Amino acid sequence: MTYPAPPVPDPSAAGPFLYFQGTAGGRMQLSALTVRPAGAAPPVVETAEGRHPGRVVLACDDRQAVRHAFDLPRSRDAWYRVDGATYPVDPAV
Questions:
Q1: What is the DSSP letter of 61?
Q2: Is the alpha carbon torsion for 55, 58, 60, 65 positive or negative?
């Protein structure tokens, strides 16, 4: 699979930071965390199964942290996309 080049990063944002949460039913349970300016629209997180809404888990000063929970198959073809940038996920790692 070929992935497009990621977009130019926003200097006021950070992430995504991917967290492994466990497995269930042969799938990896994951969370992606992003940090954005307060009041900014949360990023769009997509997988092959669709879009995954996020929720603000922390707001401090002029930043907010948004967590997106999703799961992926345990497959070398697994991926997720944040704001148009695609990130492959290898379950063997």
A1: T
A2: negative
- In degrees and rounded to multiples of 5, residue 76 shows phi and psi of -70, -10
Strands annotated E in 1-93: 14-24, 27-37, 45-47, 50-51, 54-60, 63-73, 79-82, 85-88
Can you tell me the distance from the alpha carbon of 20 to that of 36, in angstroms, rounded to the nearest whole number? Answer: 21
- The three-state secondary structure class of 37 is strand
Q: How many of the other CB atoms lie within 10 Å of CB of 48?
A: 12
Q: What is the pLDDT along the chain (93 residues), one digit of tens a residue?
A: 666 666 656 667 889 999 999 999 989 999 999 999 998 888 889 999 999 999 999 998 899 999 999 999 998 899 999 988 999 998 876
Which of 55, 7, 60 lies closest to 32, judged by CA? 55
